[in-house]
Design the sequence.
């Protein structure tokens, strides 16, 4: 409990000292940014004189924070609870978790690497200053620059093929078969990519030192800006102690590309376990005024695990859902 409070305060101090404004946005929303890979929690708004309508627990504060940025907030950060349904529960996962999200105006994803490394190094140094010698081996790697590996390099090393040369679905299917997978005709390019990545690449990346995996394929639908003239997008993920802990984009600002993302994800989201009302008007609420920026989302519970050496979220999260569900 003391470590969690100390780390939360360290995060707040780090961003306040750099003139980020802390914001506090709702956990409930009448619509969500559609993400076909994320299932939501749905509840009912009930009122004696108004129609009952659906509300959703947010999977991240992105929906609200981007509206604040579009309204001229400047650099902002937030620590809040977030919710994701239909996911694993156990020592490494919880459907309710704590997220840190921040946005830096005028920055791109590479500049956000520096901010993220600086944040984690600052927190690790504060823990080292407590003088616990047993923690030194665990914490010192967090104070040094992280290993940076591109997705192209990772696939070449761990899956044995040139990912940039497999932008066509049939090419990727051939590689999947070569690797011993059994793809179906219905698998999309993104589904084939995910199967290869999760089976052969991610586990190997996660085994090593703190690692930033960068330059994701633009064939994966996100709101990350594409790198012109390449098959890549300006996105990275951070792996600490074998766990994906942070995700970053250079945020897409092109109105047409944003609309295409929303429309594509909305079509796929209609077939999910928990259909949601997509915030189709969301990009129109600030585009074209939405400024260039980079956003980073960090799983705070997993970050605390890395800083404290905890092997389970039990104790890091005081009342994990999978415990409270027990009779």
Sequence:
């Amino acid at each position: 409990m003391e470590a969690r409070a100390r780390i939360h305060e360290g995060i707040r101090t780090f961003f306040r000292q750099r003139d980020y404004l802390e914001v506090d946005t709702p956990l409930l929303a009448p619509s969500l940014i559609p993400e076909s890979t994320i299932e939501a929690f749905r509840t009912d708004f009930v009122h004696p004189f108004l129609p009952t309508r659906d509300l959703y627990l947010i999977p991240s504060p992105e929906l609200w924070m981007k509206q604040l940025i579009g309204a001229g907030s400047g650099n902002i950060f937030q620590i809040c609870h977030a919710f994701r349904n239909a996911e694993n529960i156990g020592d490494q996962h919880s459907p309710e978790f704590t997220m840190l999200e921040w946005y830096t105006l005028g920055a791109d994803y590479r500049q956000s690497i520096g901010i993220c490394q600086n944040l984690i190094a600052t927190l690790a140094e504060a823990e080292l200053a407590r003088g616990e010698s047993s923690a030194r081996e665990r914490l010192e790697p967090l104070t040094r620059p992280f290993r940076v590996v591109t997705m192209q390099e990772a696939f070449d090393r761990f899956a044995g093929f040139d990912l940039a040369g497999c932008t066509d679905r049939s090419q990727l299917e051939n590689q999947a078969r070569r690797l011993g997978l059994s793809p179906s005709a219905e698998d999309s390019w993104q589904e084939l990519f995910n199967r290869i990545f999760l089976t052969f690449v991610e586990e190997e990346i996660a085994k090593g030192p703190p690692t930033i995996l960068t330059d994701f394929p633009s064939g994966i639908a996100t709101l990350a800006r594409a790198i012109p003239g390449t098959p890549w997008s300006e996105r990275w993920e951070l792996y600490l102690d074998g766990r994906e802990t942070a995700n970053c984009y250079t945020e897409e600002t092109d109105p047409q590309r944003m609309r295409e993302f929303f429309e594509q994800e909305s079509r796929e989201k209609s077939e999910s376990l928990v259909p949601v009302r997509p915030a189709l008007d969301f990009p129109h609420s600030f585009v074209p005024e939405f400024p260039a920026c980079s956003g980073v989302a960090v799983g705070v519970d997993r970050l605390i695990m890395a800083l404290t050496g905890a092997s389970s979220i039990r104790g890091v999260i005081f009342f994990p859902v999978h415990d409270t569900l027990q009779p």
Remarks:
- Residues 39 and 85 are 5 Å apart (CA to CA).
- The chain is about 35% helix and 20% strand.
